[in-house]
Every structure is written in C-alpha cells, then in structure tokens.
Amino acid sequence: MSVVSVIGAGPVGLHCASILKEEGFEVSVFEEHGNIGRPVQCAGLISKAGIEELGLKLDDSVVNQVKGAKIFSPGGESITVEKKETVAFVVDRFLFDQVFYKKAKRLGCDIHLNKKLIDLRGSNLFMESSGHGELHRSKIVIGADGAHSVVRHSAFKRLDENGFVQGFQARAEGNFDKNLVEMHFGNFAPGFFAWVIPESSTVARVGLGAMLGENTAENFERFIKEKGMEIKVLSKSSGLIPMAAPGSSLVAGTTLLVGDAAMQTKATTGGGIVFGLKAAEVCAGAVANHLKHQHSLNVYDKSLKDLNKELLIHWKIHSYIKKMRPEHLDKLFAKAKNAGIEPFLEEHGDMDNPSRFMRKMLFKPKMWGLLPAALRIV
Ligand SMILES: Cc1cc2nc3c(=O)[nH]c(=O)nc-3n(C[C@H](O)[C@H](O)[C@H](O)COP(=O)(O)OP(=O)(O)OC[C@H]3O[C@@H](n4cnc5c(N)ncnc54)[C@H](O)[C@@H]3O)c2cc1C
User: Fold this and answer.
1) Ligand 1: does its nearest atom lie under 6 Å from the Cβ of 9?
2) Domain spanning 163-243 has what CATH number?
3) What is the pLDDT of residues 44-81, one digit of tens each?
4) For burial by CB atoms within 10 Å, which of 67, 117, 207, 306 has the most?
5) What's the per-residue H, E or C state across 63-125?
6) Å from CA of 5 to ligand 1 middle
7) Is the shortest distance between the CB of 352 and ligand 1 below 6 Å?
8) What is the per-residue pLDDT for 365?
9) Which atom of ligand 1 is found nearest the CA of 144?
10) Ligand 1 centroid distance, CA of 160 (Å)
C-alpha cells in the first residue's frame, strides 16, 4: 500500500508531490498521459508576484513578459492599465510543466505515466494501464487530476455539479502589442471574455471562453471578424475552465482535492496556476501534519481561508459582470475611466488578490463613485 498517491502530474500535483517527498514521505504520482505537459490547454499567463511569492524558478519556460492589460467593453470602451515593470509572465506550458516534473523526479517521487484512474473507492484506486486494469491501494489520495477530475467525480459528488467555462484558443501570427494582454467582453464570449496574450509582437495566443453549450470555434471566428483582426492560425486547442464559488469541503475521508480538480481558479480570468500551486502547498502541509502528528486532514479546508477569501471576490466580480447587460457594462467602463481607474490600478492593481486594491479604493475619494458597484461585490 502506498502512503500518498497523487492523481495527475500537472503542475499542481507535481508541486504537491515534491513538497511531500521533501518532507520525507513516499509519494506515487499517477498520470494518464505518456508524457508530462501535453496536450497544452492553457494561455500560460501567470502573475510575476504570484511566482515570486511561491519562490519558483521558471527556467527557460518564459517566452514573454507583459506590463499590463487593455480591457474592452462590449461597445468598445477601453481601459488600459500599464505598469513600468513586468506584471506577468507568458510561459510555454509544456516547458513550465517540465520544471515541476524534473524537480519531482530529482527528488525521487515515484511517477507512473500511462496510468489512468478510472474509479476510486476509499483507499482502492482502480487504474487502467495499456488497456489492462490494475488495483492500487493508498492511505491518502490527492486528486490533482484537473477540470475533468475522476477523484472529484468519485468522492465529491456534490462538488462535481459545479460550473465550467469552455475555452477555445488559437496560437496565431499577426501584429500584436508585445507588452499588453487584451481582454474583450462581447456577445462572442457569453458569460466570459476573449483574450489576446502575446508571445511576441508577431505571435499571440488568441482565444475565448463561453458558457457550456456554445460553439466556441464559431464564436472565435465571430470575434476575429468583429475586431477586424488579421491573423494566421498556427494551431488550435480547447479545454474546460472550472468556474465555482469556493468554500465546499475539499476533504472526504482520506481523499483531498487540489488545483483545477478542486475548482481553484480565479473566476474573473480563469487563471488557475498560481492559486492551484499555493493550494498545493497548503494541501501538502495538511497531509504532512496528518502523517507526522495525526492532525485531522480537515485542517486543509481551514487553512485555505485566505486563498478562498480572494477566490470568493473573483467569483463575485465574475458573477456581477456576467449578469450585466452590454450597455450597462459600457457605462461601468466609462464611469470607471472617468473616476481614474487606470492610474489607480497602475499603482495598486493586483492580478491575484483583489481584496488588496478594493480596500485601497476606500481611501481614494475619486474612486468613491465606484463604491456602490464594489459594495455589491464584497
Ligand atoms: C483555454 C484555457 C486557458 C487557460 N489559461 C490560463 C492562464 O493563462 N493562466 C492560468 O493561470 N491558468 C490558465 N488556465 C487554467 C490552467 O490551465 C489550470 O488552472 C492549470 O493547468 C491547473 O493545473 P492542475 O495541475 O490542477 O491541472 P492540469 O494542468 O489540468 O493537470 C491535471 C493532470 O492530471 C492528469 N489526469 C487527468 N485525469 C486523470 C486520471 N483520471 N488519471 C490520471 N491522470 C489524470 C492530466 O493528464 C493532467 O496531466 C487555462 C485553462 C484553459 C482551458
């Protein structure tokens, strides 16, 4: 019987496994694919502050560094927030995942490729490997198996009813501003937004998210046409982005969920890497304390308080915007611009932690006109 089994060798599962191995525990990682980091289903935008807080070295996975964002309302009002320094990295997701893989291997984690979890019953893991069934047993199971999580489906039925956004993305050649990402709200991306994330001034990741049931490939064509973008598509990908309010318990018996499997994405942007990695540290800490000192695994839920506070604000902002009619969103953009949101966010903006800049709004009289909207969110 293994001590700890991590299902899924994405960045979150591998980070969790490495921490536990460093703490001295035997860790097995099971990954359904034959290699790590493929297929890529991500735009690869990660806050610099998040990476620094996590103390990560990204090696050669960074392909571009951006200084801010240009955000467009449905009617074309725009807000530009551009700092002098780098605020986010655009990473090659394959190379990024390899950073975590190499570390986990170097530390001696037992990584099994081509092993797919089919079902989980308590400590029994039913796996499929090259068309054959296998049974593994594990004291503790950590579900880091992404948006489609089998662990969540097997052990957390209630959480599995949560929502998702469907993402569609193309890597494309064209003319782009290398320093700024773009976000576009409009009817081509119902319930979410479209994005342009530059790898360079000639290549970008152009994509959108939309509610389940939308034809995102068609929506993408509409977005390109509506914006008059001239691009040459190099490759396409798609994937699910978990979209839920935080707060449900992520511990069931000796099974824990983390990362996309636990729906730990920012609902405003769909970004899940920084929060997933931070949650991996909390999860590994709770498991280590359980194994060393018999502390309850439920400490994991309690220790997520600070992360969940931020995720909840992201969720409320997303829900507030999602309910707005396009003309109201245009008006909100105009109002925010007049109130000086651009210089305010250039000074105080924080991609991951909205509570930090929302508090600061109280001390800026020019921002008070936006408080009714902000108060509806917090
Ligand atoms: C279109 C799109 C764009 C995105 N853009 C961004 C972005 O710009 N920035 C950002 O921060 N986030 C972004 N995200 C979200 C980001 O990709 C995820 O939050 C992140 O990958 C979560 O990491 P994870 O390790 O939890 O899950 P994953 O990276 O999904 O890893 C899960 C792993 O588990 C494996 N697995 C799944 N099921 C099983 C099974 N049954 N048995 C064994 N192994 C299994 C998978 O093969 C995979 O390797 C985007 C997502 C999408 C879909």
Assistant:
1) yes
2) 3.30.9.10
3) 999 999 999 999 999 799 999 999 999 999 998 999 99
4) 207
5) EEEECEEEEECCCCCEEEEECCCCCEEEECHHHHHHHHHHHHHHHCCEEECCCEEEEEECCEE
6) 18
7) no
8) 66
9) 26
10) 16
